[in-house]
Amino acid sequence: MAYLELSQVAFSYPRKKTTLLTGINLALEKKEITAIVGANGSGKTTLTKLMVGLLRASAGEIYLAGRSIDNYSLAEIGCRIGYVFQNPDLQLFCNTVEEEIGFGLIYRGCNPYTVRERVEFYLDYFELAACRNAFPLYLSQGEKQRLAIAAVLASEPDFLILDEPTIGLDAYRKKLLEAFLIKTALLGRGMILVSHDLAFVNKVAERVITLAEGRIVGNDGRKGDSGHEA
Length: 230
Ligand SMILES: Nc1ncnc2c1ncn2[C@@H]1O[C@H](COP(=O)(O)OP(=O)(O)OP(=O)(O)O)[C@@H](O)[C@H]1O
Prior knowledge:
Blueprint: E1 4-11, E2 21-28, E3 33-38, H1 44-51, E4 59-64, E5 67-68, H2 74-80, E6 81-84, H3 97-107, H4 112-125, H5 141-154, E7 159-163, H6 171-186, E8 190-194, H7 198-204, E9 207-212, E10 215-221
Parallel strand pairs: 3-8, 3-9, 6-7, 7-8
Antiparallel strand pairs: 1-2, 1-4, 4-5, 9-10
Helix pairs in contact: 3-4, 3-5, 4-5
The structure holds adenosine-5'-triphosphate.
Adenosine-5'-triphosphate binds near residues 41, 43 and 44.
């Protein structure tokens, strides 16, 4: 069984007459970078929220590491799947940039030395060291986006979901993110990118899932094209 599997998943928002997603079958492996693309409102973000238990499927089953997602608490899912929201303001809550990066590690009980080491690595990698003591919500949009990604990556979940990770990033930072995501996948941490940035998707993703009218209308394996298989 794949790391994350969806079997005949359907979903409708309460009080909406139409079914947003229907008959969704997907098998996602660790290590692989999969992009989900589709028009505005096609249900990309909703699909990822189902995968992390923020929403419950109206029909079908979702399995995480071989167990139904219904048997996990949200905290247990959060330890396995890191989620970077489209709007970083929704997930930044600490008083400083460095606390934000270290929070997940401290919560998982990492020793202070490991916390310090990883915080320094991510501050450096995402070029956030100069604002280490800044209040996260006062950062620029691009800095907030980098911080949200750094904070999720720092706690090293098995799998990542990044919703529009390139919004607010300049070309240089997109290049850094691209390299880091590819390296992360090669180390065995799979991910889903929800994105309208097709140039970025083409560089990074090994598989592209296209959603339209509530269904998967494209599931293209592109291994080899992206040039980063192990
Ligand atoms: N909490 C909610 N209650 C009711 N309808 C919702 C809710 N959240 C999203 N929707 C609706 O569900 C549909 C799909 O939204 P979703 O955000 O999943 O699409 P998306 O493909 O990620 O869009 P975008 O590309 O614009 O980010 C939209 O029509 C949206 O208005």
